Amino acid sequence: MLRQTEEAEFKERRARAGAMAALVLIALLVLVARRPPPTLLPAERQTVETEKPQVCVHTLLENEVEEESILWSLELARELGASEIVQFFPWAYVEREPGRYSWTLADRIVRHAEMQGLGVIARLGLVPDWARDGKTETLNYLTEESFPAFAAYAAAFAERYAGSVDHLIIWNEPNLNFEWGYQPADPARYGRLLRASYGPIKRANPGAVVMAGALAPTLEARGGGAGLNELEFLQDLYDLGAAAFFDALAIHSYGFRQPPEAEPAPDRLNFRRSELLREIMAANGDGHKPATITESGWNDHPRWTQAVRPSQRSAYTVRAFEFAEKNWPWLENLCIWALRYPADVYSYPDNFTLVSADFVEKPIYFALQDYARGRARRQSPWLPPPRAGR
Amino acid sequence: MNPQLRVLRALTLTLPLLVLAAGILRHYQPPDPAIAFAAGEIVIGVDGSFPPFAYDDGGELRGLDIDLGLALAREIGLPARFVSISFNGLYDALISGKVDLLISALRVEPARRDDARYTQAYYDNGLVLVSARGAPLDADALSGTRIAYEYASSADSQIRAWERDGARIEKLPYELPAYSLDALRFGQADGALTDATTFRLYKREQSEWQPEIRYVTHDPYAIALRRDRADAWKLVESAVSALKESGELAKIVAAWL
Fold this sequence. Notes:
The complex is a heterodimer.
Chain A: H1 2-34, E1 55-59, H2 67-80, E2 84-90, H3 91-94, H4 104-115, E3 119-125, H5 147-160, E4 167-170, H6 187-204, E5 209-215, H7 230-239, E6 248-254, H8 274-283, E7 291-297, H9 310-327, E8 331-337, H10 363-372
Parallel strand pairs in A: 1-2, 1-8, 2-3, 3-4, 4-5, 5-6, 6-7, 7-8
Chain B: H1 3-28, H2 33-36, E1 42-46, E2 49-50, E3 54-57, E4 60-62, H3 64-76, E5 80-84, H4 90-95, E6 101-102, E7 116-118, E8 123-124, E9 127-131, E10 146-150, H5 154-164, E11 170-174, H6 177-185, E12 191-195, H7 196-205, E13 212-215, E14 220-221, E15 224-226, H8 230-246, H9 248-256
Parallel strand pairs in B: 1-5, 1-6, 10-11, 10-12
Antiparallel strand pairs in B: 2-3, 3-4, 6-15, 7-15, 8-14, 9-12, 9-13
């Protein structure tokens, strides 16, 4: 009888110990699962070595799957001698549900950029499903009713990254119907978006620089099917009193097939078209505000109608920096579109990049690096054109 | 058995079969173009800055993709209307319903398949390994050969991949892809690696030159439609098949490339 009781007690103790061990194991598993994944941040903050701090590149890190790709891209930007990057932080990625922000990706990008010693100019846009009216599927469609929600996102961004990311571009190319959700480009509505965003951003981060524009270079006439040229769009913004709601202008200025020194004209798209925008700023009493070219460059696809040769692209790009440094004291940074795409699109846009999707530096990367770091220009990496009979 | 019961029993047995047969017939019947393209026309999005596929010729769009769009529309029995869109806006125009389909030298992109549905390929712009007549090259045995290519292009990436796999290639990088074909034609290279379109355009200029070519990668160009436009997709897919079978697609490609 006694033995039976002891056996029963032993079994009970064993069962309890087993249950306890299982609980400990589960707790350990939960702890391991909840531990943050190992980060690839460098141990020490890096420094950009550059003699030309206005050199800047536009990155596209928002669609990177692997953290390594973010790290390698930003290392390449630093090694290029760029002091700043322009990076898109899509609202639709951060606020998938109203009021619930997920900053994981944005944190990762900002922290990696900081550790590489790079400044960040943030471009904000792309509308979450819940903030659209349900009538259209384009992610660029923002109704007026959702302006406060966008402003709240912009303010939350400004607050979170105050001191790290102080330059915020409101929207991208709002003078193109496509970028304005397939609605006619509308300076008045864009002006109201600036107005809705400006106060909340400044309250969240008084040091923030709210950048308007990022207007697309286009010759579209008023009422045109694709948008409105950026010169009239900017003048309209001033006429509507929007000057009070931005601190700096973001400019998109591509060279297309012309050299960087080509004279600007309202009916011509080229690099110096920026000067026409600058004249409008000055004429409207805004000459004291700085500007940044947040997209620029040349394309060297062998078949695109607006492309130049790779050697021209390198030379034009370096000369564009030289021209801007000499002639445009109002320009803070000149940012090249684009450092690298996360994946090839297998068409001419791939030839806007400085580095291929598989991280191979193109000749223009080295040309720009030599310029930024004050080195003698190295030889072209290609052979001279073949000649018959050699 | 009661005759009424007999009829009821027959109906019970045959009705599901009839419904099934109707479903099968409907599935295999071509959709009605007037319903699939309710506007009575086929609106085609195209980037008109990319010859020879589509380009602006004095205000008129011309090119391989334009001819293909016209032929497809004829096959379906509706007029075609082209809308010129910059490359970055193509898929957004499709998804937002601004256009019915995209014909714009677009490679099939698996990442787009949540939104877009592609037809069968109408052209392959993969990389081709070109070599002299009678001296075909094997992509798996390139060690010791001199290969010309465009620096920093997809051909460059492919050659780097071969090197990672152990091939010891004598690399001849050029600024332009056409130079790599020049190098081969002048006997300064054993092979040239370039995309099929570059090769075809070059070959048109050098009609007497008869090299060997082998595709080493595939880069299929296809027509993209919205994923939820199943009937429209069926019509376009059938039309592409018909153009292939009749030889008209080959004629269109040959006219431009």
